């Protein structure tokens, strides 16, 4: 399962949880595939906000719990094992170079999207729900 949450002005504006269209061979590939989908949503949201007169100067942050995905995004190296997602790699690297997005690593304990993709114990669920919706 893969999932992402888009948050604008401290409010969730979009979310998704679905299966990958192709089977990732490792965690970094799976994270990279969902980061690509999230980036296309970010570009759309940024366009709508700019149309409404909101000027966005800073890159949008993508938080992932995969250090390998962040390292792949920041490097210019290619691997033969990554050929099947080479277009996604190039797309994300272009968006990072254009300062549209930034990818950062976050501990899996703070990964809000897990609330949509994994069975969680009640304590973890309540913490992530608090991050997503604020205190109830």
Output the keywords:
alpha+beta; Nucleotidyltransferase, domain 5; two-stranded parallel ribbon; 5 helices
Model description:
The protein has 136 residues and is of the alpha+beta class. The protein has a single domain, classed as Nucleotidyltransferase, domain 5 (2-Layer Sandwich). 45% of the residues lie in helices and 18% in strands.
CATH class: Alpha Beta
Low-confidence stretches: none
Number of domains: 1
Mean pLDDT: 82
H-E order:
EEHEHHEHH
Compute the number of strand runs. Answer: 4
Task: Assess the beta-strand content as a share of residues.
Answer: 15-25%
Query: What is the approximate shape?
Result: globular
Q: Give the number of helices.
A: 5
Radius of gyration: 15 Å
Please give the share of residues in helix. 40-55%
Helix-strand category: alpha+beta
- How would you characterize the largest beta sheet? 2 strands, antiparallel
CATH topology: Nucleotidyltransferase, domain 5
Q: Which architecture does the CATH hierarchy give at level 2?
A: 2-Layer Sandwich
Give the spatial strand order of the biggest sheet. 1-2
How far is the first residue's CA from the last residue's CA?
28 Å
């Amino acid at each position: 399962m893969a999932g992402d949450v888009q948050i604008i002005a401290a409010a969730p504006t979009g979310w998704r949880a679905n299966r990958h269209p192709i089977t990732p061979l490792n965690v970094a590939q799976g994270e990279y595939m969902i980061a690509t989908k999230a980036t296309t949503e970010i570009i759309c949201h940024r366009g709508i906000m700019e149309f409404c007169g909101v000027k966005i100067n800073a890159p949008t942050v993508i938080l992932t719990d995969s250090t390998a995905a962040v390292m792949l995004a920041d490097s210019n190296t290619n691997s033969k094992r990554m050929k099947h997602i080479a277009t996604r790699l190039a797309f994300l690297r272009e968006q990072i170079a254009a300062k549209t997005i930034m990818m950062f690593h976050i501990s899996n304990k703070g990964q809000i999207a897990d609330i949509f993709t994994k069975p969680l114990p009640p304590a973890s669920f309540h913490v992530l729900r608090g991050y997503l919706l604020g205190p109830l």
